[in-house]
Amino acid sequence: MRKHLLLSGIVSLFLSATSVAETVNFPEEIVPLQVGDKKIEHSFFNRVDEVELVPGVYQLKLKYTDLYEQGYDEHQVIDSEPFWVTMTIAANTDYDVVFNRADNAVAAEVFAEAPQVSLQAKGASLGTPLVIIAEPDLTSSINSQVATVQVAPTVASATRAAPMAANLQAPVSRPAPNAGNAPSAAAMLDFWWQQASAQERQAFIDKVTKNK
Fold first, then answer.
1. Do the strands 56-71 and 83-89 form a parallel or antiparallel pair, or are they unpaired?
2. What gap in Å lies between CA 188 and CA 196, rounded to an integer?
3. What is the rounded CA–CA span in Å between residue 122 and residue 119?
4. What is the 3-state secondary structure of 74-117?
5. d(CA 29, CA 157)
6. Any residues with CB less than 8 A from the CB of 208 and at least 6 apart, and which?
7. What number of CA atoms fall less than 13 Å from residue 121's CA on the CB side?
8. Exposed e or buried b per residue across 124-141, where buried means at least 16 C-beta atoms within 10 angstroms of its C-beta
9. Strand 95-98 and strand 22-25: pairing?
10. Angle at the Cα of 69 (from 65 to 71), degrees rounded to 5?
11. What is the distance in angstroms between the CA of the first residue and the CA of the last residue of the chain?
């Protein structure tokens, strides 16, 4: 009897040790807002660029947002309405959320009306399209497996900025940014300023004043 209990304890310990979370990375333009009933918090100084999920099936709320140059020191922000997708996470696999970025603001506005994103396993050449679903019933047990949500500092020198909201590695299916069309630092600063709350703006002013 004692031997059986000891063996059961070892097996339970092994199983718990192998239930590690997998990482899902998001590009700058696709913002994770919610995983099941767990909302993802963003701030002026920090944004989420990855979430960690144990293997299972999840429902995520996302948003598309992008910034396009329209001329000298002029830019246009393109946003979609928040949308939900179902995501299946396998064990021992990390992922990138990928999409085909539009070449111009007009095409981006069309994309924003019906965003299409895919989930691509690290090292794979193709992603699996994520089907947009209706807003889910958040009381369902399908949303109860969230492990952690990591917050990474915003990279101020990125060629495009995403409002309040994701940036580790450019997705394989996304074309490399054209340095000639990259928004200016002033445009990006103005973009972030417009997205910030009154409290975040004051915090930024205090930070700049303090560093003088």
1. antiparallel
2. 12
3. 10
4. EEEEEECCCEEEEEEECCCCCEEEECCCCCCHHHHHHHHHCCCC
5. 15
6. none
7. 8
8. eeebeebeeeeebeeeee
9. parallel
10. 155
11. 71
Per-residue model confidence as pLDDT tens digits over 86-143: 999 999 999 999 999 999 999 999 999 999 999 999 989 899 999 999 988 777 555 4
145 close to 138: Cβ distance less than 8 angstroms: no
Q: What is the pLDDT of residues 24-49, one digit of tens each?
A: 999 999 999 999 999 998 776 677 88
User: Whole-angstrom Cα distance, residue 182 to residue 184?
Assistant: 6
CB 24 within 8 A of CB 168: no
Token couple for 167: 């940036």
Please state, in angstroms and rounded to a whole number, the distance separating the CA atoms of residues 115 and 25. 18
